[in-house]
Amino acid sequence: MSIDRIRHAGLREKVMSAEAAAEFVKNGMNLAITGFTGAGYPKALPTAIANKAKALHAQGEKFSIGMVTGASTAPECDGVLAEANAVHFRSPFQSDPTLRNGINAGNIAYQDMHLSHVEQQMRQGFYGKFDIAIVEATAITENGELVFAMGIGHGAEAVKNADKVIIEINEALAEGLEGMHDIYADVGLPPHRKPIPIVGAFDRIGTPALALDPNKVVAIVLTNGGDRNSKFAEPDDVSKRIAAQVIDFLDHEVKAGRLPKSLLPLQSGVGNVANAVMAGLLDAPFEDLTGYTEVLQDGMLDLILAKKMKTASATALSFSPDALQRFNENIEFLKDKIILRPMEISNNPEIIRRLGVIGMNSMIEADIYGNVNSTHVMGTRMMNGIGGSGDFTRNGFFSFYVSPSTAKGGAISAIVPMVSHHDHTEHDVMFIVTEQGMADLRGKAPKDRAKLIIENCSHPDYRDMLRDYYDRALVASQKAGGIHTPHILLEALSWHQRFVETGDMRIK
Amino acid sequence: MSIDRIRHAGLREKVMSAEAAAEFVKNGMNLAITGFTGAGYPKALPTAIANKAKALHAQGEKFSIGMVTGASTAPECDGVLAEANAVHFRSPFQSDPTLRNGINAGNIAYQDMHLSHVEQQMRQGFYGKFDIAIVEATAITENGELVFAMGIGHGAEAVKNADKVIIEINEALAEGLEGMHDIYADVGLPPHRKPIPIVGAFDRIGTPALALDPNKVVAIVLTNGGDRNSKFAEPDDVSKRIAAQVIDFLDHEVKAGRLPKSLLPLQSGVGNVANAVMAGLLDAPFEDLTGYTEVLQDGMLDLILAKKMKTASATALSFSPDALQRFNENIEFLKDKIILRPMEISNNPEIIRRLGVIGMNSMIEADIYGNVNSTHVMGTRMMNGIGGSGDFTRNGFFSFYVSPSTAKGGAISAIVPMVSHHDHTEHDVMFIVTEQGMADLRGKAPKDRAKLIIENCSHPDYRDMLRDYYDRALVASQKAGGIHTPHILLEALSWHQRFVETGDMRIK
């Protein structure tokens, strides 16, 4: 029974229905809700809040909330709330189709934030006061401490920061999760901060559960539901070719003595291509790999189960249904090989730089000078958000951006004259990799980068168009007084406009 | 006598003329040359190398070098080398007119880098091998340790990294500089890095001088010349209005209990406006200020001399002639109030985030969504470079960008529909301040930012044009499927193109 997971007698008395708990949520409130890449989000409260919103709206009353999560949640959280028009502000990351539509229709204000900044900005009061935290948990200990679920994200800060706390205890979660979390509570605010004492990717620096103020807990709701476990695509030929190039390069660096045979701690972004790189490492000539990432997906789990990877640190576990089963079945083996941390620690610039994390993230597009767009389709439409990609790109030892060279059956080029939105600048991006090839941008001036990216990474269908743009940009920019970064200002974004108008970036 | 400053007998034997020392520099070599914002650059060698280049070029021979400095140098360094066509690669920052022309004519490859990344990328081999380091110094100790000059920048890494070392001892430097430097040599490479043990902005963690391998020192040249000490403009009305708004905001935060009365450590970018903010602090209601910055200019010096600022940490001292005199005259008073560090430490993300540094930097332009261009004029022409602005913007407690709302007598607006080059993204920039007003972008979605920036920061001459662009962008982007970040793709950069064509961003 779920209630047995509440091992603190006083807190058992707070158990109630989701509908009763939703009564604490009032119009205009600012909520901190756990959830990170479809893991660790509340399963029952959002629907209860959405139903309340619909009922109030039907009566002509206003009802909407601001919500700050760890990262993306799921249809039963972001989806139901957006569908009920119950959200007026959302941060820092999302990927739900209904919520995305609300954002792109201009109805929901969305602030797209570096994940490593969220908890400190909550603590600093940059988001204003949080009225209620809604937190998914595996259990509550005898001492009234909260054991988080499959993801932590900003959960520890949410609980500390909010005036009231509502906890969902999810019986579907493996009890073996207890002990996997590492809650470091001492980040604090300047000028009283100390170094974060992680020197190895698997160092434990905190406690397995979070101390709770029982007086702040206004409701506990018992649930039994799975996370948003979506299946990964089997690595296709394009993904495998991208993965092979990344792995070849790393192997080359090992052979040149510039990387240890165990590499450096790996970060892998969300999605099929990033997952394919992890899958490729199963057969790569490296041993004793380590992970220091935000989301641990199937690929990294299988590296651990295959004993290619020794340990991994993350803030959330996001698995396909099959991988979840492997995780649950092997949880005793995995217990001393996986750490879940608050995202302030998993994505912390201090730690990422110190450890020398190798960051690999997917992109929407890169331009010929190495700027990367991770967030906006055709410059104006929000896809998901920047997530932790900037935390790793800016501070890591290596920063890879991977993508197939085209999308939509060839109608979109992932390599464009100028990205239509800039999330990672030429100052930060080190490697662009497509199935066509790789561009190593380190120590290169913009014009040298352009040649490499066009010749190595672009799809043959677009290569002549890119060469033509670059050649004409050299002439146009000379007239404008400088050809450090050649561009034709009125044409730089024309590929995107052509796609909007004709459905194809190619000139017919 | 300069030679008395070489207190190590063995190294005295390495003294020679600049011309003789320049013979070590061969065509195609990769040089690490000290210098940071017109301080600490070699005064004699560059001219000797330039003369050698000219002589060789006259004989039809090739001669050019790659050079990585701390930041900008001066006409006697970057200037003479560029004028002699002796530079084929330059990184990470520059501000010399002759060098800039070479870059913008497409003759010199320039990589514009975050300064905090330079030393680790040298150590990691991302720039290739360094043949020679040329380093300005105040003295060499009895034990053969190098005492740096008015700036350190990447000097410590340059000496360690390069095969050979050439030292210039500059007699014009105050001997009292000895003891002001703090060389922390233990940053190292992953996976063996430890926390950098700075917990207060003035903590000393290293040694006052750098241990030298005497066998690597191939030449010592004696010089007697001043740094590039240019006069700051007296704060004008526009600068004072910008400064007043920053100070009012900080005062408001102190009164609200969100900042201590001593604020948090201050970083101030280079230039007149940033200097004006420091000047404004002389009369502000704060006490016991501290500085944690890359360049310490007149404004911060005067805060220390006036006992408004307790201590300051920097990597270089860049003064006007008057301020240099005040510095030299008060050097005994200042000795326990100023620390000079390697730029890997002054600009380190770990330290900037831990200390909660308040970053204030100038910009070329910002757009209506809060993206900032620090480097490119009209999108293609390199001005100076990003310097450390990104290090502080990305990791600081607050990130301010300041600029007059117009330039060139009103022909250029500092607030544009889309910046023509992105150095700091909407994810990082917190405050835009012009003499018109301030926009607080924290916790704001793009459309809310646009209203704030247009209404608060833009110049009245451009406000209607910006409102008109934004209103039409809302319509255009709806057609393109999303109005999260409204833009008209073919018009977004048209203001810059109009300036290139007509010399004015305004529609006549």
UniProtKB/TrEMBL annotation, chains A, B:
What does the UniProt keyword field contain?
Answer: Transferase
S-adenosyl-L-methionine is among the record's keywords:
no
- A GO term (biological process) for this protein? acetyl-CoA metabolic process
Q: Where is the Acetyl-CoA hydrolase/transferase C-terminal domain?
A: 325-469
Which residues does the entry assign to the active site, renumbered to this chain?
E294
Query: Origin, by domain of life?
Result: Bacteria
Under Enzyme Commission nomenclature, its number is 2.8.3.-
Give one Pfam family: AcetylCoA_hyd_C
Q: What GO molecular function annotations does the UniProt record carry, in alphabetical order?
A: acetate CoA-transferase activity; acetyl-CoA hydrolase activity
Provide the binding site for CoA: G269, V270, G271, N272, V273, I364, N384, G388, K408
Q: Where is the Acetyl-CoA hydrolase/transferase N-terminal domain?
A: 11-221
Q: Which SUPFAM superfamilies match?
A: NagB/RpiA/CoA transferase-like (SSF100950)
Family of the protein in this entry: Belongs to the acetyl-CoA hydrolase/transferase family.
Name of the protein: Propionyl-CoA--succinate CoA transferase
Upper taxonomic lineage: Bacteria, Pseudomonadati, Pseudomonadota, Gammaproteobacteria, Moraxellales
